[in-house]
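<tokenise_the_fold>
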Amino acid sequence: MLVSKLFTNQAIRFATVGVSNTVIDFVVFMLLQSFTGVVAAQFIGYGAGTLNSYLWNRRWTFARGKGFDFSEIIRFLLVNITVAIITAIAISLVPASIPVWIAKIAVTILGLGINYTVSKLWVFR
């Protein structure tokens, strides 16, 4: 029962948006890093992915429709900042004996689970 709820169409749409966010972040970063430096490119790339995430999750994943909701944007930003902090802490706690790519996958799944749940229950309620 729990597994079937995790793989609803909404969860699949959320994951699809997440993949597009990652692609946007990476492409923007790679295009800008030689011009702006890696720190600025990282900030701009992450921001582009987050903007993509908000727009697509609001309109497609959670079907919130048109209109502007400032409090929703604040909740969205708070969730994304919190998930970034949690996953950064989590990856720093992974033993060095575990390959970095496995640690990254693990914390990405953790972040996805937290982000989806909180987005569904609080951000796009």
